Known about the structure:
This protein is mainly alpha-helical.
Amino acid sequence: MLRAVSFLAGARTVSTETSMLKVNLTPDEVRKQLRLHGWSWESGGAALGLGLGILAPVAGSILTAITWFTGPHWHGFFIQRYGTVLLFLTIPFLILGGHCIVLVKKDEAAKRRHRQAE
Length: 118
């Protein structure tokens, strides 16, 4: 569905696409895509980077919150340091995951071009 937006009467109109393709990402669909395309170091890096990019800030926040109540040193572990390191590692993990996704997309585009050339 396209929607035209007019800012002033008689002015240019800007068309924007408001609907996106509906993607069904159920676990069965993801498994089917992995069976179809297989695992590669790019897809593994994307899964690992994005997974750790989501888990690292959660774990880092929990460890940091624990230090507010127990202090930075707890049973021989420096949990304040570990929490801070996990919080700072969030961005590199997300960058790694995003970069690997770009590599996967480039590989798919190259394969598609190769198939069309044949």
